[in-house]
Design brief:
Helix content: 10-25%
Shape: elongated
Mean pLDDT: 77
Strand content: 35-45%
Strand order of the largest sheet: 1-6-3-4
Distance between the termini: 32 Å
Low-confidence stretches: none
Order of helices and strands: EHEEEHEHEE
Number of strands: 7
Length: 130
């Protein structure tokens, strides 16, 4: 997933000043044929040293228990509260192309021929009015 980092950082900074928000990673329409797979989500940020490779920060684990059954309809949905990483989004070095990158990887490789697909991935902000 790639998002517009400058808009996200500005918005998170504004909300953080008031302490009135929650930040979520949403994975929608997850489908596959292998139950009990665990995926891990990482936020990839530009390297602090300026090296071409990026640094990654762990965001969440996603347990896909019941994936096979959920895949027969709309797939699984997963919501992870990543508010604790909002400071990282505000202060992290920006990639050269100015984007946030979230990567999803299996904790252990699924069996051969058991692909997993994610229909849509989003970062959402919930704002509390005071």
């Amino acid at each position: 997933m790639v998002a517009d980092e400058s808009a996200m950082a500005a918005f998170v900074s504004e909300c953080a000043a008031h302490g009135t928000f929650r930040l979520y990673l949403l994975l929608e329409n997850i489908r596959g044929s292998h139950d009990a797979t665990v995926l891990q989500a990482y936020l990839r940020i530009a390297s602090q040293t300026g090296a071409p490779e990026a640094d990654e920060t762990y965001l969440a684990s996603i347990g896909l228990f019941g994936l096979r059954r959920a895949s027969s309809s709309d797939g699984m949905q997963f919501y992870a509260d990543i508010t604790a990483h909002a400071a990282l989004l505000r202060s992290a070095p920006i990639h050269a192309d100015g984007r946030i990158v979230v990567s999803i990887r299996p904790h252990h490789a699924p069996p051969q021929g058991a692909p997993i697909s994610i229909g849509r991935m989003r970062i959402c902000l919930e704002i509390y009015k005071q």
